[in-house]
Amino acid sequence: METPPKKWRYGINRWIILFLVILNIFFVYYVYYPVLPHIQLPAENVSEMPLFGNFYLTNTMVATIIADVILILIAFSVSRAVRSGELIPRGIAGAIEAILEVINNLTESTAGKWAKSIFPFFATITLLVLIVNWMELIPGVDSIGRLEHSDHGYPIEEVIPGSNIYTILSERDAGEHDAHDGGYGLVPFVRVASTDLNFTVALALISVLMTQVIGVRALGATYFTKFINVGGIFKRPVFGVIDFGVGILELVSEFSKLLSFSFRLFGNIFAGSVLLFVIGTLIPVFVQSMFLGLEFFVGLIQAVVFGMLTMVFMAQATQGHGEHHDEEHAEEAAA
Amino acid sequence: MEVAAAKLIGAGLAMVGTIGAGIGIGMLVNGAVQGIARNPDASGDVQTNMILGIAFTEAVAIYCLVVALLILFVG
Q1: Which end of chain B has fewer CB atoms < 10 Å from its terminal CB, N or C?
Q2: ipTM score of complex
Q3: Residue A322 confidence (pLDDT)
Q4: Which residues contact A44 (CB under 8 A, 6 or more apart)?
Q5: Which residues pair with A149 in a beta bridge?
Q6: Is any Cβ of chain A less than 8 angstroms from the Cβ of B17?
Q7: At A274, phi and psi to the nearest 5?
């Protein structure tokens, strides 16, 4: 029953890749050279007209909506596969089942009986952040958009005459096209949502607030004695005061969780996209592919870390201080 | 011109803070790998805790990065 070792064959894929590499080199050196985009923190407006009132649709919102649509489509296809009655899921359904099983096992081993109410947050946050982060790798994101007048812009040129599709020229290609009207900058239609602080702060707020909700559901009002611990002040003067101080520190750490959640995701992905821009303009051939591989892993790790930290904090919130000590003593007694 | 130069120097100085995070992550992974080598059965738990610890440590470096990016690209 041994499967024979696979023969080394010359498949067609490597020729396609070689062709693409040669096309890349040809394109960069003979047609258009890439341009370093103007990097800015706040998200740009997709259209010059507001949707209503003072509300603009920004390009990170477009990315979030696309990610939501992808998630909903995946959910529909998985639910269809589950309802079809086949015991062995195939395709996307199988992949999703594998991911969810790993997440579920991790949650159950950490949170115990509260796994059922913590698992949805872990899974939702991980999947959403994963899809949003991986959008960074798709060509066209961050590079297709509308033109806007700007002071530090570049000259433009029509790609095919009469098609009303323009490309931005680099200094090398500009040559005789001097910037007679100030030049243009690009406002992309889709920009990775994690490079907008609004997205990451919203996720961090959901995560930290629901941690408190789950803590209250698990422990009732005694959950708040974790923060304002006055119980022991009069019984044990010295250690009671220390406990009170520790409670205040716990309160501060809840707020610092907000900061670290939002800045971790934002910093990693924003720095990653700036890295891709700069590498793409410095060495436009082949090297960027390796950094795309790096960003693939950074996006995956950040998504898993965001979800896992949420899960761990929620699991900690369900365990009271006293209960924990009692368990330890019981284990010692049993040993 | 002086403001632009000061911005660049400031962003570079802000990233000095990542030295600590680098040392911290090195020590953390050192401990985790030694733990896994001595007790390979516990590798799953050790890896989970190691990634959590790295995430916490890395957050400090990311603060530096965010400060540097703010200096460079805002205002």
Answers
A1: N
A2: 0.73
A3: 53
A4: A58, A59, A187, A188, A191
A5: A184
A6: no
A7: -65, -40
A304 in B contact zone (CB under 8 Å):
yes
Please answer yes or no on whether B69 and A263 come within 8 Å at the CB atom. Answer: no
Q: A267, A204 in Cβ contact below 8 A? A: no
A38 touches chain B (CB under 8 A): no
- The predicted structure's pLDDT at residue A110: 84
Q: Which residues of B touch A39 (CB under 8 A)?
A: 73
CA A232 to each of CA A181, A252, A316: distance values in angstroms, whole numbers, following the listed order: 73, 20, 22
C-alpha dihedral, A102 to A106 to A107 to A110, nearest 10°: 170
Which overall architecture, per CATH, does domain B2-73 show?
Up-down Bundle (1.20)
Task: For A278-334, write each residue's pLDDT tens digit.
Answer: 888 888 888 888 889 889 988 998 999 899 899 989 998 888 765 444 444 444 444
Q: How many other β-carbons are positioned within 10 Å of the β-carbon of residue A69? A: 10
A46's CB contacts (< 8 A; 6+ apart) are: A56, A57, A58, A59, A62, A146, A187, A189
Q: How far apart are CA A152 and CA A149, in angstroms?
A: 9
Q: Is the Cα torsion angle A19, A24, A29, A32 positive or negative in sign? A: positive
**How far apart are the CA of A264 and the nearest CA of chain B, in angstroms?**
6
Stated pTM of the model: 0.82
Q: Buried (b) or exposed (e) across A314-332, using 16+ Cβ within 10 A?
A: bbebbbbbeeeeeeeeeee
